[in-house]
Amino acid sequence: MGLITGLLTLPLAPVRGTAWLAERIQEQAELELGDEGAIQEQLMQLEALHAAGEIDDEELAAGEDALLERLIAARGLSGEESNGRLDGE
Question: Can you give the residue range of the structural domain that contains 55?
Answer without folding.
Answer: 11-88
